Amino acid sequence: MRSRPRRTARRWSPGAALVSLGNEIDKLAANIALGRDAAGVHYRSDSMRGLFVGEQQALGLLRDYSRTYNERFDGFIVRKFNGEKVKIASGQVRPL
Hints:
Blueprint: H1 21-38, H2 44-66, E1 76-79, E2 85-89, E3 92-95
C-alpha cells in the first residue's frame, strides 16, 4: 500500500516574513550568539555586544570594498541591527 506524500510546503501569506539575505545573516548571527550562551561559553551581554562589534567590522569591510570598484557602482544598502538603513558607497557609510 502506497502512502500519500506529506505536504510540507507552506503557502505564502502577506503576513509571513520574507526570506532575504539580510534576514538570513541576522538569523545566523543570532543563532551563533545564543548557542554560545546556552553552551556556557559567554554571557548574553557579551554575545549582544559581539553582534554589534561584528556589524561594525562588516560595515568597514563593505566600505573598503566600495572603494575598489572601477565601474559605476551605486553602493550597498544594508539594515543595521538597530533598524537603521545605511548606504555604503565610495568609501563612506551614510544613513538613509
